[in-house]
Amino acid sequence: MNRILWKLQNAGERLWLLANITAQQSATFEIEGLGLAVVAEETRKMAEKINELVERALFEEKEIQPGHLRDVAFMLNLLAFNSAIESHRMGWRGKPVAVCADDIRSLAYEITKLFDGNTNQLRRCVPLPKNRMTSVDRGIDYLRINIDGIAIAEPLINIKEICFAERTETHVKLRGMEVPLIDLYKQLGKTQDEPTYIILNTPWAAQNKTYAVTANVTYIFNSPIGIPTAAPPDTPLAGYIREYWESENGEPFLFLDWPKLTR
Q: Does residue 152 sit in the same domain as residue 77?
């Protein structure tokens, strides 16, 4: 147990450092860095959470449960995603942020391993490097979303963040704002085990609005994509597809008309 506590303490200290670096980067970008400031604050909170678990184990002899560490690792996954999103938005200036995202992702993996966590599942939930295949537009990265086995994609530049948040039947409450909710699981007659929300914009629509979408994020990719084509009539959510792309590995990607899903 002492070895595990030492590793957790080390992880907490590294997260503090990453939070400070991220905060400094956000200040450098001023208005553009507001999203990064949120990442820095959430990273700091996770460092405090880890330190709290260690202190309770050391001074109150409260055993750290595997579920606590799984929760921490999952939240670090979301932070790694959001760091990668902010890095992508900043272009070449965001390289230090990309390094922080990689470090946060590594910490999530290390913490999961401490109690024999399911690292294979964790790996599927972190950003993958750009690799292998080319896309219609080589300059665009995409976020792959999984809705009950349906592969949905969205250009990364349209993604604001990925988060947990309180919700009502129609909205997600996020830092004092109420964002219109698109519950794809409910529309498909399914349930979502862990309510993760993707906050996205729709600059391609007649009105560029912000929506919160229930989804499981899988990875960021540079796109194993072929060319846009007509969707087969039996395609799930066929009435809400704005584009349908075949991929080289045979798995199609759907690009949804998000505003249409709210009508």
A: no
Task: Return all residues near 91 (Cβ < 8 A) that are at least 6 apart.
Answer: none
Structure tokens at 259: 């505003």
From CA 80, how far away is CA 245, in angstroms rounded? Answer: 27
Q: Is 20 left (phi over 0), alpha (psi -120 to 50) or beta?
A: alpha
- Tell me which residue range forms the domain holding 173: 142-261
132 is a domain residue: no
Which tens digits make up the pLDDT trace of 208-221?
A: 999 999 887 767 77
Residues whose CB falls within 8 Å of the CB of residue 54, separated by 6 or more in sequence, listed in order: 5, 8, 9, 12
Same domain as 68, residue 34: yes
The whole model's pTM is what? Answer: 0.78
CA angle 90, 142, 253 (to 5 degrees): 170
Tens digits of per-residue pLDDT, 102-132? 888 888 888 877 765 554 444 433 333 333 3
**Tally of CB atoms within 10 A around 259:** 18
Q: CA-to-CA distance for 246 and 118, rounded, in angstroms?
A: 31
Element (H, E) at 22: helix 2-29
Residues 157, 61: one domain? no
Instruction: Report the domain count for the chain.
Output: 2
- Helix (H) or strand (E) holding 235, with range, is none
Of 11, 74, 83, 21, which Cα lies nearest the Cα of 47? 11
